[in-house]
């Protein structure tokens, strides 16, 4: 059964991804959460979890188009997938780094391409990328060097795609979470999820980047 509006969270998990999915479901969206391991995500009303690999652009495109056909139109895409090879700078192998960037950057680009092709004819839509403060300075967590590099590239991607897609009414923004996501703090998943919702409401006026500082 098709719904009036759909939101997709690529990289749903028990933390921020699920909190964002719940937030959009509460607003009446049908929400599809995509993950490689669906059994790790608890079943909840209004959220349908599907298997997908963010490192596989062809498969990701197929799943997004399937959701559009079955449940769409997709009004919002949140790209929350990431991969990290823990190790000091210089220790991850080139293959490790390439695999991390495939998920952290290439997957985001592939998802954005697909969604732009679906959203542009309607003249509206939101693509929100989960960024991080490590994009600005990797030194607070040097052992996550490969993630820092990916978040920096993701930030650059958001700026470029925001400029390219806004004429079509499609908003691309990175939510730069400038702190450690943790329950019971100013960086609790539910608080960040509220910011994602507000960002969607702002549309293209939000610009390419919004900083979540916990204040």
TrEMBL record:
InterPro entries: NAD(P)-bd_dom_sf, SDR_fam. SUPFAM superfamilies: NAD(P)-binding Rossmann-fold domains. Pfam families: adh_short. This is SDR family NAD(P)-dependent oxidoreductase. It comes from Methylobacterium longum.
């Amino acid at each position: 059964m098709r719904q009036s509006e759909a939101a997709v969270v690529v990289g749903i998990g028990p933390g921020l991804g699920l909190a964002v999915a719940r937030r959009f479901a509460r607003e009446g969206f049908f929400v599809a959460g995509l993950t490689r391991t669906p059994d790790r995500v608890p079943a909840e009303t209004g959220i349908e979890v599907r298997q997908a690999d963010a490192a596989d652009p062809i498969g990701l495109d197929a799943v997004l188009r399937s959701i559009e056909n079955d449940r769409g139109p997709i009004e919002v895409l949140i790209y929350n997938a990431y991969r990290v090879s823990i190790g000091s700078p210089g220790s991850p192998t080139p293959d490790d780094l390439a695999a991390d960037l495939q998920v952290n950057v290439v997957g985001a680009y592939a998802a954005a391409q697909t969604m732009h092709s679906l959203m542009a004819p309607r003249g509206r839509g939101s693509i929100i990328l989960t960024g991080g403060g490590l994009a600005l300075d990797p030194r607070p967590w040097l052992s996550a060097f490969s993630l820092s590099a990916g978040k920096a590239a993701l930030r650059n991607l958001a700026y470029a795609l925001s400029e390219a897609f806004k004429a079509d009414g499609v908003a691309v923004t990175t939510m730069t979470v400038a702190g450690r996501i943790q329950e019971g703090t100013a960086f609790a998943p539910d608080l960040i999820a509220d910011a994602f919702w507000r960002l969607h409401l702002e549309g293209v006026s939000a610009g390419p980047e919004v900083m979540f500082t916990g204040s």
